[in-house]
Amino acid sequence: MKVNVTVLMDGRETVIPAQTGETILEALARAGIAVSAPCGGLGRCRKCAVRATGELACEDSARLDGQTVLACRTRLTGDARVRVSESKAEILKTGVSAGEETDGETGLGVSVDVGTTTLAAYLVERSTGRVLASDARLNPQRPHGADVISRLSFAIESEENAALLQREILAAIDEMTRSMLERAGRAGEEIRCRALVGNTVMMHLLGGYPARPLAFAPFTPAYTALHEKELGGVRTILGGCISGYVGADTLAAALACGLDERDENAMLIDIGTNGEIMLKKDGRCFACSCAAGPAFEGAHIACGTGAVAGAIDHARVENGEIVYTTIGGGEATGICGSGLIDLTAALLDRGDITPMGRMAGDVRLSERVYLARSDIREVQLAKAAIASGIRILAEQAGAALADIEKVYLAGGFGNFIGLDSACRIGLLPAELRAKIVPVGNAAGSGSVRLLVSEQARRRAEALRQATRCVELAATPDFNDVYTDELLFEDEDDE
Fold first, then answer.
1. Pairing of strands 370-371, 363-364
2. d(Cα 291, Cα 283) in Å, to the nearest integer?
3. Could you give the percent of the chain with pLDDT greater than 70?
4. Nearest CA among 148, 146, 155 for reference residue 42
5. Across the strands, what pairs with 137?
6. What is the dotted CATH code of the domain comprising 2-83?
7. What is the dihedral of CA 417, 420, 423, 425, to 10 degrees?
8. Domain spans of the chain?
9. Fewest 10 Å CB contacts: which of 69, 362, 389, 410?
10. Which CATH superfamily is domain 108-258 in?
11. 238 bridge partner residues
């Protein structure tokens, strides 16, 4: 039965439709409203707390006080009112273009970068490649887990779960498409096709392909080559995947950066829950995936959050004190990924963190927000995954870091992090600092190219076939490199 949920957020009221029996978290996610739930709805992280009244079925363990409940463990039995303190996440969707290649076809198309955490969509004039409008929202699958492993676990439990995940993504894409068409003053009948890119798991879930093989070694995808398929009644181009954990988004980003065409030794790095790295050395291409985990998305961090209003986004040491800024400039309500990196670097500079990662106690940043000792361990695990991937991929390609002429840092997270801080904590090698070029949502630009150009689609497929995927865990020195990268360098030794 359909019910209405009145959502109070940022001083505004919005009524969203819902179904009896679904959780508050599921209803909010479908509406694109950001509520942190990194545990995947298990009730463990307790970050999805909201104020709620009305017809609700709430487990005793999910009721924190009179009206405060865990959204993931509270089900709707009728109409309800929900107060959400978190604003909509900031998602990078700008700076996207088709380049110079177009086939000159008529009508409109939609390109979507389908991330584990976020979706970024673009309405494109196919004849020119011009982006007419863009839209972004949180991935509505987030209530089923913050990372691809959680999503996979949910999907393989039953065919119904897999079908639900596909419906959630396609419904979100349809909603974003309608929003973009309205803002551009165009009609839905003008849509001719769409191009979708994402990591391999996301591509399998939205394409309706069996996900079980990706959950178990040797992690073999059901498809890898770029192809077309009708999804939701729309001709859809599905980007090609390099391996089980190096997906179409990485390939699209490499296409946008011209990794296949530039005569240079270049590296592409996309830092996220699943970090992906590509390296071109002497005309040969290599790729790997790094299981960084969701710490930079706010998961497993005591006061972690996404890039929302109130999140600490940058920090530094000034006269021995930690000073910081927040998104929106208001009171600090949490710490997002870029803030976490800056804070770690600042505390290292101040001597509060040892090279081993030990910190004497929690660091209070405001009345509500603090950096916990356990947070530093999460930073170590995440940064070690990325850093060891960079070093091992270079080794496998026969390249010294000095041989790399340019580093393209892709994705929203890479666009916002402080590069000096990233190098200070060892997330990125200090030797590469001067060569790093943030390229924004390169995957989005690549998806637009796939939409409007047959030549771009051929280039992407040739690059996919020419790329050798390196399984980091299978390399003999992985454990040693990873262990070394867990440490922070003493500034005096740099």
1. antiparallel
2. 27
3. 93
4. 146
5. 119
6. 3.10.20.30
7. -80
8. 2-83, 108-258
9. 362
10. Domain of unknown function (DUF4445) (3.30.420.480)
11. 196, 227
Residue for token pair 């492993």: 149
Q: For residue 87, name the pLDDT band (cuts at 50, 70, 90).
A: very low
Place 255 in a pLDDT band, splitting at 50, 70 and 90: very high
Handedness of CA 28, 33, 35, 39 (dihedral sign): positive
Rounded mean pLDDT, 193-222: 93
Cis geometry, peptide bond prior to residue 355 (ω within 30 degrees of 0): no
Predicted confidence (pLDDT) at residue 494 exceeds the cutoff of 60: no
What is the phi-psi region of residue 378: left when phi exceeds 0, alpha when psi lies from -120 to 50, beta otherwise? alpha
Amino acid at 215: A
Q: Are 471 and 389 spatial neighbours (Cβ–Cβ below 8 Å)?
A: no
What is the distance, to the nearest Å, from the Cα of residue 173 to the centroid of all Cα atoms in its chain?
Answer: 16
Map tokens 């030990």 to a residue: 358
Q: Which residue has the higher pLDDT, 336 or 273?
A: 336
Residue 76 has pLDDT above 60, yes or no: yes
Which stretches of 374-479 are assigned E, i.e. beta strand? 406-410, 436-440, 467-469
Rounded Cα gap, residues 173 and 226, in angstroms: 20
Res 32: pLDDT: 65
**Distance, first Cα to last Cα, the chain:** 63
For residue range 355-406, list pLDDT tens digits in order.
999 999 999 999 889 999 999 999 999 999 999 999 999 999 999 999 999 9
Enumerate the H helices of 156-296 as residue ranges: 159-184, 200-207, 248-256
Report which residue type is found at 354.
T
The two structure tokens encoding residue 452: 């409007």
With a threshold of 0.90, does the pTM exceed it? no
Q: At what angle do helices 478-485 and 373-396 cross, to 10 degrees?
A: 140
For the segment 331-344, what is each residue's pLDDT rounded down to a tens digit? 898 898 999 999 99
Contact 385, 486 (CB under 8 A): no
pLDDT digits (tens, 9 = 90+) for 173-205: 999 999 999 999 999 999 999 999 999 999 999
210 has a pLDDT exceeding 50: yes
Q: How far apart are CA 111 and CA 406, in angstroms?
A: 27
Query: Whose CA is closest to 293, among 203, 376, 374, 383?
Result: 383
Higher pLDDT, 43 or 128: 128
Grouping H, G, I as helix, E, B as strand and the rest as coil, residue 467 is: strand
The neighbouring-strand residues paired with 289 are 276
| Cα 332 from Cα 246, distance rounded (Å) | 35
